[in-house]
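Q: Convert this sequence to structure tokens.
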Amino acid sequence: MVALMREHEMCVCEFVALFEMSQPAVSQHVRRLKSVKLVKETRRGQWVFYQLNKGHQAYAFIEPLLAKLPDLNHKIAELEQKGLRVCLPEG
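A:
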């Protein structure tokens, strides 16, 4: 989740589809990341998007670890192909 949020804004429904987890389980993970301010949220209408907070004091520690993980852009492409990617323009 954190690796995806490093590069992309994501909503809970996208994580549900990607990880085949329940919405409450995904929400609990996101809520914990948000509670320590490692993730920030952006609201657009009824949608809430989450992204890694690169300004967080722990980011300098986390970023080298995330850089070692495999590229996950193919997961975003899978969501798009299935029509499950929630992409809304800002504003």
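The radius of gyration is 13 Å.
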